[in-house]
Amino acid sequence: MTAEPSESTTEEKKVGVYICHCGGNISDHVDVDQLAKNVAGIEGVTVTHTNMFMCSDPGQELIQADIKSGKINRAVVASCAPSLHELTFRSAIKRANMNPYLYEHANIREQVSWVHHGDTATAKATHLVAAAIAKAKNLLPLEPIRVDAVGHVTVIGGGVAGMRAALDLSRRGIRVALVEKTAFLGGNTARLDRLVPTNDTGENVVRTLGDAVIADPGITVYGCAQIVGYEGYVGNFKLTLAQSTLKCSTISHEAGDWVSNTGLYVGEAGKDGQWVVESGAIVFATGFTPYRPREGEYGYLNVPEVVTLPDFIQEMAQLPAGGRPLTIGGRTIRRVAFIHCVGSRQIPGIHEPGGDGKLNEYCSRTCCSAILQAAVQIRTRYPETRVFEYYRDIRTYGRGQEDYYDRASDQNVLFFRYEPESPPLVERIERRPYPLRVRVKDTLTFGEELTAEVDLVVLGVGMQAHPIGDLVDMMKLPTGMDGFLQEVHPKLRPVEIANNGILLAGACQAPMDISEACNAAQAAAAKAATLLIKGHVELDPYVAQVDGSRCTGHGRCVEVCPVEGAVRMAAGKASVNPALCTGCGICVGECPEQAIDVNGWTLKQYEEMVDAILAA
Amino acid sequence: MSAEVNPDLIVDLKKFGVKSASACFNCGNCTAICSLSSESTPFPRKVIRYLQLGLKDKLMESPEPWLCYYCGDCSETCPRQADPGEVMMGLRRYLTSMYDWTGISRLFYTSTVFEVFSILLVAALVGLGFYTFHGPMLTDRVALNVFAPNTTIEILDLIMLGVLSFLLLTNAYRMFRAVMGDPAQYPELTPFEKQQFQNRIIRGIPAPLFISEAKEFVVHFLTQKKFIACGTASQRMQWFNHLLIMTGYSTVFLLVVVGLRWFQRDEIYALWHPVRLLGYYATFAILYGTTIAIVGRIKRSKTVYAHSHSSDWAFLVLLWLTTFSGILIHGTRMLEMPLTTYYLYVIHLMIAVPMLVIEVPFAKWTHQLYRPLIVYLMNVKKRAMARA
Ligand code: SF4
Ligand code: SF4
Questions:
Q1: Contact (CB, 8 A) for B25 and B99
Q2: Rounded Cα–Cα distance for residues A401 and B208 (Å)
Q3: Which of A222-226, A407-411, B221-225 has the least mean pLDDT?
Q4: What does the pLDDT average to over B194-219?
Q5: Of A252, A362, A373, B253, most Cβ neighbours within 10 A?
Q6: For A412, nearest residue in chain B (alpha carbons)
Q7: To 10 degrees, the CA torsion angle through A123, A126, A131, A132?
Q8: B347-374: buried (b, 16+ CB within 10 Å) or exposed (e) per residue?
Q9: Whole-structure pTM value
Q10: Ligand 1 pocket test target in A346, A359, A361, A365 with most atoms within 8 Å of CB
């Protein structure tokens, strides 16, 4: 575990500069030949090249040839944003047997040609490349940090995503602790009946996964358990577990029992007090909670004939097959109204925020299909029951989901479309034969007001992030405005979060359906496995390093460091734990002795860059 | 004012041939493509929506189904295969039955058994009548006027005309009441106007408005010119075909009902005689028009012909057979075949009479009155509304 830069400060610096046309993306605005001429004269530059596409094989081979022939020992590529191709060029350099950190990248596309034109573009590019050359001359060879990794993963949450991730990991030979707060596996899926688009049951899905989890010797299930302590870093997390605060012990079932509407019974962990689990990575599969309407929202709680979709699904699931007519709570249901988007797609100024002061501005993505599925079920099983749906938009985006809309409309489900500012109004009417009246300004009917009398109103409630504030605080996890855990990048790194070694599986990240949650779980498992399978983890060497000769033990760095344990005082001097340090550099600015620096981004390097910019 | 939805209406409408209206998701493509739809009376989407919602009163008040000549553009454009054109057709059947106070129309449209039975019954009555009352069957020459004197037939014709007209006109009156809507919706008359028009105010509208627009009625009755707006060549053929059947039928109707004494003669007119020429035109026009339509429906060659309600078949087949048997009579008379002529004559009437009795006041022939009437009434309504 070392990040000591090797000493090679004395050798002569020979910098190669490689300028990319990017087709014409760059060269249409930056005079690349002029740019090459401008920087060719800078001290230390031994070669300059321009190329149509530096990232192409011939482009990379240019650099490799110069390294092999000894013309250069530092490389600067001026091209697109480093997030795109920095890694490409580092790898090319490494393949030519040069230390990949002796490389500097200048972004002359996003920062220059896409925003400036003509001479100013060329001038700015010259400044940036000159700065990169200055830094390159001061680069030292670095080695990636190696951290030993425990071949064990803790998965938090025993719903479908958690189970899926646990199984995938175990099958790759990684031991898993599956931590579940309740005494049951299955999460929200266990409370569902038929699933879109397969018409499979929630029970079947949960049992298939749950039975496999219970039978898997590589997976330890900790039921009725929760995480109360956390320390460590990628490869070496230490999680302290304890009995969950939920009253689990009152339930008595056999392990592996299916309890309808609840899940697969696993019982308690069988441990007393607290215990520690060591893991190389953590997978979050904490899922979601259905939105709970406010009192009075569409009459909820005030009117007994207004229920939420999950409750309605459970009621329907308990009805005997073949029994007719549709009877709920002793009442025959002749007409049902479903309202979409309850607690989803909320708009500031129109909707009232929930208890936490937040609006759920997102689409919950699953309710449309779930409502349509329920509607089709009603029309199929109870053809004499009429169904009305009040929607804002129908968003049946997934495979096979649009079919439910087709079937519903085929089966005479009547649709109404409302605008968010004039949602349907549910009123109780004492008049027979129907107890409720739904009033709506229907945009499909030229904004005319329509009323429908019904027996039951079902609220298509959306998803909310499961309340895991304690874990978020404890582990300093990033969450979005919507309260869900937030990935690094929705497309490029969809199941990772900024905290190295912690991965996301399922609806803890955003509303998603079961298929998507399982996709995410499998991706998270694959990510965790690739991270741990070698027995060690390699991290970027851009971490803080203390110059022992300068450090006088003020301890300012320890005070300001945002990462618990990344820098500590040992024997009167600061000492960095490179596995924890994120290289943010806050300590560098604070140290009065300038005794701490971030490798690869040292103060000296910055100074040289600034000088170069001013000189160019 | 809010309207109460009724999900059962769409189920009821299935019997009238409205099969696919629930598939409509109200995109409005059909209205956009329709060359007859206008900003003030957009269709077909609007009435399809009313139908989905079961807003019976709104449907009763809607002139749109009668403005549609079923070119089929909308059905071809609809992304949901909701077949809006056919929905409009079904709505016309439904509305016809709603305007009809006797309930026969509803039975005729919703029950194939009734449809067949009623036709057979009337045919049997006609047959029975001839069996009992026919005159001597001379065999030395064709003496149709001895077998069935045109004076007697004419009287029977006129009685039938009276009864059918009564039924049709009372139904048309009910249509008039429905489409003109609530009298209170029209701008109130000023005291001066009240005095000026005195009692000549019909359902909130001053009577002179009805008179000044009457020309429209005649023009549309004769030309069905709305139909011409339907764009393509094939649609214009459709209009032409429609016009052929309509004019042929009207001609023959006039000849038979009003001019029977000139039409049913035992001597054969010279080829150039106007009555004979009119007869030829009418038979040709109907036979050609109905044959095209029948073949089209069999082959389902166009969108318009894709779905056939049993009443569509009844209409076409009866009309075709009437005409065909009429031609045969003409032939056997010229070939001097007395007995065959008499039998054919009875058969001819056993087809023609049920067709008239059922179709004129209760089914498709009502269109001939309803369509121009609606165009006319809508003009009146527009002017009444704009009066303020
Ligand atoms: S899935 Fe449908 S009901 Fe749910 S929030 Fe999105 S649009 Fe609304
Ligand atoms: S009938 Fe078809 S084209 Fe017309 S509004 Fe409905 S879905 Fe759209």
A1: no
A2: 59
A3: B221-225
A4: 80
A5: A373
A6: B22
A7: 140
A8: bbbbbbbbbbbbbbbbbbbbbbbbbbbb
A9: 0.84
A10: A365
* Share of residues in chain A with pLDDT > 90 (%): 86
- Do A388 and B3 make contact, defined as CB atoms within 8 angstroms? no
> Which chain B residues have a beta carbon less than 8 Å from that of A409?
22-25, 80
pLDDT of residue A264: 95
Q: 3-class SS at B4?
A: strand
Domain ranges of chain B: 9-99, 104-386
* Cα torsion angle, A268, A269, A272, A274, sign: negative
Strand partners, A178: A155, A221
Q: Which of B1, B2, B52 sits opposite A414 (nearest CB)?
A: B52
Tokens of A356: 């936490």
How many CA within 13 A on the CB side of residue A416? 30
A414 with B5: Cβ contact below 8 A? yes
pLDDT digits (tens, 9 = 90+) for B347-361: 999 999 999 899 889
Q: How far is it, in rounded angstroms, from Cα A411 to Cα A384?
A: 11
Other Cβ atoms less than 10 A from the Cβ of B208: the count is 11
HEC assignment per residue over B284-347: HHHHHHHHHHHHHHHHCCCHHHCCCCHHHHHHHHHHHHHHHHHHHHHHHHHCCCHHHHHHHHHH
Q: Quick count: other Cβ atoms within 10 Å of Cβ A531? A: 22
In this model, does residue A383 exceed pLDDT 70? Answer: yes
Task: Give A51's strand partners.
Answer: A20
- Bridge partners of A288, per DSSP, are A465
- Reply yes or no on whether the pLDDT at A418 is more than 80: yes
Q: A129-155, pLDDT tens digit by residue? A: 999 999 999 999 999 999 899 999 999
Among candidates B2, B11, B25 on the partner chain, residue whose Cβ is nearest the Cβ of A451: B2
pLDDT band of B49, cuts 50, 70, 90 = very high
Q: Which of the 8 DSSP states describes residue B148?
A: S
Amino acid identity for residue B308 in this structure: S
Length of chain B: 388
- B3 near B55, Cβ under 8 Å? yes
Token pair in block for residue A34? 């002029």
Beta bridge partners of A569: A574
Q: Answer yes or no: do B23 and A409 touch at CB < 8 A.
A: yes
Q: CA-CA distance, A87 to A90, in Å (whole number)?
A: 5
| Residue A47 Cα distances to A211, A331, A613, angstroms | 64, 86, 20
Give one DSSP letter per residue of A201-270, joined into a string.
BHHHHHHHHHHHHHH-TTEEEETTEEEEEEEEETTEEEEEEEE-SS--TT----TT-EETTTEEE-----
Q: Read off the tokens for A73.
A: 């020992």
pLDDT tens digit string along A336-371?
999 999 999 999 999 988 877 889 999 999 999 999
Residue A63 near residue A15 (C-beta atoms within 8 A): no
Question: Cβ contacts (< 8 Å) between A412 and chain B: which residues?
Answer: 7, 10-11, 22
Annotate A325-384 with DSSP letters as a single string. S-EETTEE-SEEEEEEEETSS--TTTSPP-TTS----S--SSHHHHHHHHHHHHHHH-TT
Of A286, A163, A179, A155, which Cα lies nearest the Cα of A241? A179
Rounded CA gap, A585 and A606, in Å?
13
Q: Higher pLDDT residue, A94 or B388?
A: A94
* C-alpha–C-alpha distance, residues A283 and A152, integer Å: 11
* Per-residue confidence (pLDDT) for residue B231, from 0 to 100: 62
Instruction: Check: CB of residue A213 under 8 Å from CB of residue A187.
Output: no
Q: At what angle do helices B310-334 and B338-362 cross, to 10 degrees?
A: 150
Q: Is B40 touching A (CB cutoff 8 A)?
A: no
Question: Does the structure show a pLDDT above 70 at B267?
Answer: yes
